[in-house]
Amino acid sequence: MGVMALPREYTNQACSLARSLEVVGERWSLLIVRDAFFGIRRFNDFSSHLRIPRAVLTDRLDFLISEGVLVRTPGPGRRLEYELTEKGLALWPVVRTLTVWGDSFYAPGGPRRVFTHRDCGGEPDPMGRCPRCGENVSLAETMMRPGPGFAKPAEDADPVTLALAQPRKLLQPLTS
Amino acid sequence: MGVMALPREYTNQACSLARSLEVVGERWSLLIVRDAFFGIRRFNDFSSHLRIPRAVLTDRLDFLISEGVLVRTPGPGRRLEYELTEKGLALWPVVRTLTVWGDSFYAPGGPRRVFTHRDCGGEPDPMGRCPRCGENVSLAETMMRPGPGFAKPAEDADPVTLALAQPRKLLQPLTS
DNA sequence: CAGATAAGTTCGCTGAACGAACTCTTCTGT
DNA sequence: ACAGAAGAGTTCGTTCAGCGAACTTATCTG
Protein backbone atom coordinates (compact mmCIF):
# COMPACT_ATOMS: atom_id res chain seq x y z
CA MET A 1 0.00 0.00 0.00
CA GLY A 2 1.16 3.50 -0.69
CA VAL A 3 0.43 4.58 2.84
CA MET A 4 3.33 6.77 3.55
CA ALA A 5 4.59 7.27 7.01
CA LEU A 6 4.63 10.93 7.80
CA PRO A 7 8.11 12.13 7.15
CA ARG A 8 9.90 12.00 10.43
CA GLU A 9 9.25 15.21 12.21
CA TYR A 10 11.93 17.77 12.51
CA THR A 11 11.98 18.14 16.24
CA ASN A 12 11.81 21.87 16.61
CA GLN A 13 8.13 22.28 16.05
CA ALA A 14 8.19 25.89 17.13
CA CYS A 15 9.44 26.81 13.68
CA SER A 16 7.42 27.23 10.52
CA LEU A 17 10.44 26.46 8.38
CA ALA A 18 10.66 23.02 9.95
CA ARG A 19 6.94 22.59 9.45
CA SER A 20 7.21 23.50 5.78
CA LEU A 21 10.08 21.11 5.28
CA GLU A 22 7.98 18.29 6.64
CA VAL A 23 5.68 18.89 3.67
CA VAL A 24 7.96 19.86 0.80
CA GLY A 25 11.41 19.12 2.21
CA GLU A 26 11.68 15.57 1.02
CA ARG A 27 13.65 14.50 -1.94
CA TRP A 28 11.78 15.21 -5.21
CA SER A 29 8.82 17.03 -3.67
CA LEU A 30 9.75 20.52 -4.78
CA LEU A 31 10.72 19.30 -8.23
CA ILE A 32 7.29 17.76 -8.61
CA VAL A 33 5.76 21.06 -7.55
CA ARG A 34 7.97 22.96 -9.99
CA ASP A 35 6.88 20.70 -12.82
CA ALA A 36 3.28 21.35 -11.87
CA PHE A 37 3.94 25.09 -12.22
CA PHE A 38 5.38 24.35 -15.64
CA GLY A 39 2.12 22.70 -16.70
CA ILE A 40 2.90 19.03 -16.17
CA ARG A 41 -0.18 17.20 -14.93
CA ARG A 42 0.11 13.49 -15.67
CA PHE A 43 1.85 10.66 -13.90
CA ASN A 44 3.90 9.54 -16.86
CA ASP A 45 4.96 13.07 -17.68
CA PHE A 46 6.32 13.61 -14.17
CA SER A 47 7.95 10.20 -14.37
CA SER A 48 9.70 10.71 -17.67
CA HIS A 49 10.72 14.29 -17.02
CA LEU A 50 12.07 13.79 -13.50
CA ARG A 51 13.30 10.22 -13.90
CA ILE A 52 12.16 9.51 -10.41
CA PRO A 53 11.45 5.88 -9.41
CA ARG A 54 7.78 5.33 -10.07
CA ALA A 55 7.05 4.01 -6.61
CA VAL A 56 8.56 7.12 -5.10
CA LEU A 57 6.53 9.30 -7.44
CA THR A 58 3.37 7.53 -6.31
CA ASP A 59 4.27 8.15 -2.68
CA ARG A 60 5.12 11.80 -3.21
CA LEU A 61 1.97 12.55 -5.19
CA ASP A 62 -0.19 10.84 -2.59
CA PHE A 63 1.52 12.72 0.18
CA LEU A 64 1.28 16.10 -1.53
CA ILE A 65 -2.40 15.43 -2.11
CA SER A 66 -2.92 14.47 1.51
CA GLU A 67 -1.26 17.74 2.50
CA GLY A 68 -3.47 19.75 0.18
CA VAL A 69 -0.71 20.90 -2.14
CA LEU A 70 -2.06 18.98 -5.14
CA VAL A 71 -5.45 17.68 -6.16
CA ARG A 72 -6.17 14.71 -8.35
CA THR A 73 -8.80 15.46 -10.94
CA PRO A 74 -10.14 13.60 -13.94
CA GLY A 75 -8.81 15.26 -17.06
CA PRO A 76 -9.76 14.90 -20.72
CA GLY A 77 -10.56 11.28 -21.50
CA ARG A 78 -11.08 10.57 -17.80
CA ARG A 79 -7.38 10.35 -17.32
CA LEU A 80 -6.14 11.39 -13.94
CA GLU A 81 -4.39 14.70 -13.60
CA TYR A 82 -2.56 16.37 -10.75
CA GLU A 83 -3.02 20.07 -10.24
CA LEU A 84 -1.76 22.62 -7.76
CA THR A 85 -4.23 23.89 -5.19
CA GLU A 86 -4.17 27.44 -3.85
CA LYS A 87 -1.86 26.15 -1.16
CA GLY A 88 0.39 24.63 -3.79
CA LEU A 89 0.35 27.80 -5.88
CA ALA A 90 1.52 29.67 -2.80
CA LEU A 91 4.79 27.77 -3.11
CA TRP A 92 5.85 29.75 -6.17
CA PRO A 93 8.02 32.21 -4.21
CA VAL A 94 9.83 29.23 -2.67
CA VAL A 95 10.49 27.62 -6.05
CA ARG A 96 11.52 30.96 -7.48
CA THR A 97 13.93 32.02 -4.72
CA LEU A 98 15.66 28.65 -4.80
CA THR A 99 15.97 28.87 -8.57
CA VAL A 100 17.35 32.40 -8.40
CA TRP A 101 19.94 31.25 -5.88
CA GLY A 102 20.97 28.37 -8.13
CA ASP A 103 21.17 30.69 -11.12
CA SER A 104 23.35 33.09 -9.12
CA PHE A 105 25.93 30.55 -8.05
CA TYR A 106 25.75 27.64 -10.46
CA ALA A 107 24.83 29.10 -13.84
CA PRO A 108 27.92 30.89 -15.19
CA GLY A 109 26.20 31.45 -18.51
CA GLY A 110 23.32 33.30 -16.89
CA PRO A 111 19.85 32.16 -15.82
CA ARG A 112 18.70 28.93 -17.39
CA ARG A 113 15.14 30.13 -17.58
CA VAL A 114 13.65 33.60 -17.62
CA PHE A 115 10.21 34.52 -16.34
CA THR A 116 8.60 37.63 -17.72
CA HIS A 117 5.44 39.62 -17.33
CA ARG A 118 3.37 38.75 -20.40
CA ASP A 119 2.05 42.30 -20.76
CA CYS A 120 5.15 44.42 -20.33
CA GLY A 121 8.13 42.08 -20.63
CA GLY A 122 9.54 42.96 -17.20
CA GLU A 123 10.93 40.27 -14.95
CA PRO A 124 8.84 40.00 -11.78
CA ASP A 125 10.70 39.34 -8.53
CA PRO A 126 9.92 36.12 -6.62
CA MET A 127 6.97 37.81 -4.93
CA GLY A 128 5.48 38.71 -8.31
CA ARG A 129 6.22 42.43 -8.36
CA CYS A 130 7.15 43.60 -11.83
CA PRO A 131 9.98 46.14 -11.76
CA ARG A 132 9.04 47.55 -15.14
CA CYS A 133 5.33 48.25 -14.75
CA GLY A 134 5.05 48.00 -10.97
CA GLU A 135 2.14 45.60 -11.12
CA ASN A 136 1.67 42.46 -9.13
CA VAL A 137 1.89 39.74 -11.76
CA SER A 138 -0.20 36.59 -11.44
CA LEU A 139 1.21 33.23 -12.44
CA ALA A 140 -1.12 32.97 -15.43
CA GLU A 141 0.31 36.26 -16.70
CA THR A 142 3.85 34.97 -16.40
CA MET A 143 5.77 33.62 -19.37
CA MET A 144 8.63 31.18 -19.03
CA ARG A 145 11.29 30.81 -21.70
CA PRO A 146 14.83 29.53 -22.01
CA GLY A 147 17.42 31.98 -20.72
CA PRO A 148 21.03 32.58 -21.77
CA GLY A 149 22.31 29.70 -19.63
CA PHE A 150 19.81 27.19 -20.93
CA ALA A 151 21.30 23.89 -22.07
CA LYS A 152 19.55 22.89 -25.24
CA PRO A 153 18.11 19.40 -24.83
CA ALA A 154 19.22 16.61 -27.12
CA GLU A 155 17.03 15.92 -30.14
CA ASP A 156 16.03 12.59 -28.68
CA ALA A 157 15.20 13.96 -25.25
CA ASP A 158 11.81 13.03 -23.87
CA PRO A 159 8.84 14.96 -25.28
CA VAL A 160 8.19 16.71 -21.99
CA THR A 161 11.67 18.16 -21.85
CA LEU A 162 11.35 19.29 -25.46
CA ALA A 163 8.02 20.93 -24.83
CA LEU A 164 9.44 22.82 -21.87
CA ALA A 165 12.19 24.21 -24.08
CA GLN A 166 9.58 26.34 -25.88
CA PRO A 167 8.24 29.62 -24.50
CA ARG A 168 5.09 28.93 -22.52
CA LYS A 169 2.78 30.44 -19.98
CA LEU A 170 3.11 29.14 -16.46
CA LEU A 171 0.45 26.61 -15.47
CA GLN A 172 -0.60 26.08 -19.06
CA PRO A 173 -1.48 22.38 -19.25
CA LEU A 174 1.10 20.41 -21.13
CA THR A 175 -0.72 17.81 -23.15
CA SER A 176 2.10 15.87 -24.67
CA MET B 1 35.98 9.83 7.58
CA GLY B 2 33.40 12.49 7.08
CA VAL B 3 33.93 12.49 3.35
CA MET B 4 30.46 12.81 2.06
CA ALA B 5 29.50 11.53 -1.30
CA LEU B 6 27.91 14.25 -3.34
CA PRO B 7 24.22 13.92 -2.84
CA ARG B 8 22.89 11.91 -5.69
CA GLU B 9 22.25 14.26 -8.53
CA TYR B 10 18.76 15.17 -9.43
CA THR B 11 18.84 14.15 -13.01
CA ASN B 12 17.50 17.21 -14.71
CA GLN B 13 20.65 19.27 -14.64
CA ALA B 14 19.18 21.89 -16.89
CA CYS B 15 17.39 23.35 -13.91
CA SER B 16 18.77 25.66 -11.27
CA LEU B 17 16.19 24.50 -8.76
CA ALA B 18 17.54 20.97 -9.01
CA ARG B 19 21.07 22.32 -8.69
CA SER B 20 20.13 24.26 -5.55
CA LEU B 21 18.49 21.22 -4.04
CA GLU B 22 21.69 19.25 -4.47
CA VAL B 23 23.27 21.76 -2.10
CA VAL B 24 20.59 22.63 0.43
CA GLY B 25 17.87 20.08 -0.34
CA GLU B 26 19.03 17.38 1.98
CA ARG B 27 17.47 16.72 5.31
CA TRP B 28 18.58 19.24 7.97
CA SER B 29 20.63 21.46 5.66
CA LEU B 30 18.23 24.39 5.55
CA LEU B 31 17.59 24.17 9.28
CA ILE B 32 21.31 24.44 9.89
CA VAL B 33 21.41 27.47 7.63
CA ARG B 34 18.44 29.00 9.42
CA ASP B 35 20.13 28.54 12.77
CA ALA B 36 23.20 30.24 11.37
CA PHE B 37 21.01 33.23 10.44
CA PHE B 38 19.76 33.23 14.01
CA GLY B 39 23.30 33.56 15.32
CA ILE B 40 24.17 29.97 16.16
CA ARG B 41 27.81 29.27 15.41
CA ARG B 42 29.02 26.31 17.42
CA PHE B 43 28.76 22.59 16.91
CA ASN B 44 27.15 21.84 20.23
CA ASP B 45 24.66 24.65 19.84
CA PHE B 46 23.48 23.31 16.48
CA SER B 47 23.40 19.85 18.00
CA SER B 48 21.34 20.70 21.03
CA HIS B 49 18.98 23.05 19.23
CA LEU B 50 18.25 20.84 16.23
CA ARG B 51 18.59 17.46 17.94
CA ILE B 52 20.17 16.10 14.83
CA PRO B 53 22.40 13.01 15.11
CA ARG B 54 25.88 14.30 15.65
CA ALA B 55 27.39 12.28 12.82
CA VAL B 56 24.85 13.74 10.43
CA LEU B 57 25.61 17.23 11.69
CA THR B 58 29.29 16.65 11.01
CA ASP B 59 28.52 15.54 7.48
CA ARG B 60 26.19 18.44 6.76
CA LEU B 61 28.57 21.07 8.11
CA ASP B 62 31.45 19.63 6.10
CA PHE B 63 29.34 19.53 3.00
CA LEU B 64 28.00 23.07 3.40
CA ILE B 65 31.58 24.24 3.88
CA SER B 66 32.74 22.38 0.79
CA GLU B 67 29.96 24.09 -1.14
CA GLY B 68 30.94 27.51 0.16
CA VAL B 69 27.77 28.14 2.13
CA LEU B 70 29.55 28.13 5.50
CA VAL B 71 33.09 28.81 6.65
CA ARG B 72 34.79 27.38 9.70
CA THR B 73 36.67 30.02 11.66
CA PRO B 74 38.40 30.07 15.02
CA GLY B 75 36.25 32.03 17.42
CA PRO B 76 36.96 33.41 20.88
CA GLY B 77 39.13 31.00 22.82
CA ARG B 78 40.20 29.27 19.60
CA ARG B 79 36.93 27.37 19.53
CA LEU B 80 35.69 26.55 16.10
CA GLU B 81 32.77 28.47 14.74
CA TYR B 82 30.65 28.12 11.63
CA GLU B 83 29.56 31.24 9.81
CA LEU B 84 27.55 31.99 6.70
CA THR B 85 29.47 33.17 3.66
CA GLU B 86 28.05 35.65 1.17
CA LYS B 87 26.71 32.67 -0.72
CA GLY B 88 25.09 31.40 2.46
CA LEU B 89 23.64 34.80 3.30
CA ALA B 90 22.05 34.80 -0.15
CA LEU B 91 19.84 31.95 1.06
CA TRP B 92 17.82 34.26 3.31
CA PRO B 93 14.99 34.72 0.77
CA VAL B 94 14.69 30.94 0.53
CA VAL B 95 14.51 30.50 4.29
CA ARG B 96 12.08 33.38 4.54
CA THR B 97 9.67 32.30 1.79
CA LEU B 98 9.48 28.78 3.19
CA THR B 99 8.83 30.16 6.65
CA VAL B 100 6.14 32.48 5.38
CA TRP B 101 4.45 29.56 3.62
CA GLY B 102 4.55 27.50 6.80
CA ASP B 103 3.17 30.41 8.81
CA SER B 104 0.36 30.82 6.28
CA PHE B 105 -0.86 27.24 6.38
CA TYR B 106 0.35 25.72 9.62
CA ALA B 107 0.29 28.49 12.19
CA PRO B 108 -3.35 29.19 13.07
CA GLY B 109 -2.29 31.53 15.85
CA GLY B 110 -0.30 33.71 13.47
CA PRO B 111 3.39 33.84 12.60
CA ARG B 112 5.66 32.16 15.11
CA ARG B 113 8.35 34.74 14.58
CA VAL B 114 8.27 38.24 13.16
CA PHE B 115 11.12 40.01 11.48
CA THR B 116 11.18 43.78 11.57
CA HIS B 117 13.28 46.62 10.27
CA ARG B 118 15.25 47.82 13.27
CA ASP B 119 14.97 51.46 12.24
CA CYS B 120 11.31 51.81 11.33
CA GLY B 121 9.55 48.72 12.68
CA GLY B 122 8.19 47.68 9.29
CA GLU B 123 8.19 44.06 8.23
CA PRO B 124 10.45 43.58 5.20
CA ASP B 125 9.31 41.12 2.55
CA PRO B 126 11.47 38.06 1.81
CA MET B 127 13.59 40.12 -0.60
CA GLY B 128 14.30 42.67 2.14
CA ARG B 129 12.11 45.51 0.94
CA CYS B 130 10.48 47.32 3.84
CA PRO B 131 6.88 48.26 3.11
CA ARG B 132 6.90 51.05 5.69
CA CYS B 133 9.99 53.03 4.79
CA GLY B 134 10.64 51.61 1.35
CA GLU B 135 14.27 50.86 2.09
CA ASN B 136 16.15 47.68 1.30
CA VAL B 137 16.86 46.24 4.72
CA SER B 138 20.09 44.34 5.37
CA LEU B 139 20.11 41.29 7.58
CA ALA B 140 22.09 43.08 10.27
CA GLU B 141 19.34 45.69 10.43
CA THR B 142 16.68 43.04 10.88
CA MET B 143 15.26 42.16 14.27
CA MET B 144 13.69 38.80 15.04
CA ARG B 145 11.27 38.32 17.89
CA PRO B 146 8.55 35.87 18.91
CA GLY B 147 5.29 36.42 17.07
CA PRO B 148 1.67 35.78 18.09
CA GLY B 149 1.90 32.08 17.20
CA PHE B 150 5.09 31.47 19.11
CA ALA B 151 5.02 28.49 21.45
CA LYS B 152 6.77 29.50 24.62
CA PRO B 153 9.55 27.02 25.35
CA ALA B 154 9.51 25.04 28.56
CA GLU B 155 11.53 26.44 31.44
CA ASP B 156 13.95 23.54 31.15
CA ALA B 157 14.42 23.80 27.40
CA ASP B 158 17.98 23.93 26.18
CA PRO B 159 19.76 27.29 26.58
CA VAL B 160 19.88 27.88 22.84
CA THR B 161 16.12 27.60 22.49
CA LEU B 162 15.67 29.94 25.43
CA ALA B 163 18.06 32.49 24.00
CA LEU B 164 16.21 32.44 20.68
CA ALA B 165 12.97 33.25 22.48
CA GLN B 166 14.31 36.74 23.22
CA PRO B 167 14.29 39.57 20.67
CA ARG B 168 17.59 39.57 18.80
CA LYS B 169 19.27 40.93 15.72
CA LEU B 170 19.76 38.45 12.91
CA LEU B 171 23.30 37.09 12.66
CA GLN B 172 24.18 38.34 16.12
CA PRO B 173 26.50 35.66 17.53
CA LEU B 174 24.83 33.61 20.18
CA THR B 175 27.41 32.94 22.83
CA SER B 176 25.57 30.67 25.14
C1' DC C 1 -9.81 -7.93 -30.97
C1' DA C 2 -4.75 -6.94 -30.83
C1' DG C 3 -1.43 -3.99 -29.55
C1' DA C 4 -0.26 0.38 -27.35
C1' DT C 5 -0.38 3.62 -23.72
C1' DA C 6 -1.34 5.17 -18.91
C1' DA C 7 -0.89 4.44 -14.21
C1' DG C 8 0.59 2.32 -11.03
C1' DT C 9 2.86 -2.32 -7.88
C1' DT C 10 6.17 -5.50 -6.55
C1' DC C 11 10.69 -6.84 -5.26
C1' DG C 12 15.43 -7.35 -3.76
C1' DC C 13 19.32 -4.33 -2.79
C1' DT C 14 21.99 -0.69 -0.97
C1' DG C 15 23.08 3.28 1.47
C1' DA C 16 21.77 7.01 4.39
C1' DA C 17 19.76 8.37 8.84
C1' DC C 18 19.17 7.15 13.52
C1' DG C 19 20.42 7.14 18.69
C1' DA C 20 23.54 5.82 22.09
C1' DA C 21 27.90 5.30 23.65
C1' DC C 22 32.65 6.29 23.20
C1' DT C 23 37.04 9.16 22.38
C1' DC C 24 40.06 12.90 22.29
C1' DT C 25 41.21 17.62 23.23
C1' DT C 26 40.94 21.90 25.49
C1' DC C 27 39.39 24.81 29.23
C1' DT C 28 38.62 25.86 34.43
C1' DG C 29 38.75 25.81 39.21
C1' DT C 30 41.44 24.65 43.25
C1' DA D 1 49.75 20.54 38.80
C1' DC D 2 45.75 17.91 38.65
C1' DA D 3 40.74 16.60 38.40
C1' DG D 4 36.81 17.15 36.29
C1' DA D 5 33.80 19.31 32.90
C1' DA D 6 32.70 20.85 28.43
C1' DG D 7 33.51 21.04 23.33
C1' DA D 8 33.83 18.59 19.11
C1' DG D 9 33.46 15.12 16.99
C1' DT D 10 33.67 9.28 15.88
C1' DT D 11 32.11 4.66 16.08
C1' DC D 12 28.72 1.18 15.78
C1' DG D 13 24.70 -1.76 14.97
C1' DT D 14 20.01 -1.26 13.31
C1' DT D 15 16.35 0.27 10.55
C1' DC D 16 14.10 2.28 6.86
C1' DA D 17 13.65 5.02 2.63
C1' DG D 18 15.22 5.43 -2.14
C1' DC D 19 16.70 2.89 -6.10
C1' DG D 20 16.02 0.49 -10.85
C1' DA D 21 13.94 -3.10 -13.28
C1' DA D 22 10.32 -5.93 -14.13
C1' DC D 23 5.56 -6.91 -13.67
C1' DT D 24 0.40 -5.91 -13.56
C1' DT D 25 -3.98 -3.92 -14.62
C1' DA D 26 -7.07 -0.88 -16.96
C1' DT D 27 -8.23 2.03 -20.62
C1' DC D 28 -7.67 3.64 -25.64
C1' DT D 29 -7.15 3.09 -30.58
C1' DG D 30 -6.89 1.23 -35.13
Distance between the termini of chain A: 29 Å
Name the assembly state: homodimer
Give the mean pLDDT of chain A: 92
Structural class category of chain A: alpha+beta
**Which protein chains are joined by the largest interface, and how many residues does each one contribute?**
A-B, 51 and 51 residues
Largest sheet of chain A: 3 strands, antiparallel
* Number of strand segments of chain A: 5
Poorly predicted ranges of chain A: 1-6
**What sort of overall outline of chain A do the alpha carbons produce when their principal axes are compared?**
globular
Helix share bin of chain A: 25-40%
* Main sheet: strand order of chain A: 3-4-5
Helix tally of chain A equals: 7
Radius of gyration of chain A: 17 Å
Order of helices and strands of chain A: HHHHEEHHEEHE
Proportion of residues in extended strands of chain A: 5-15%
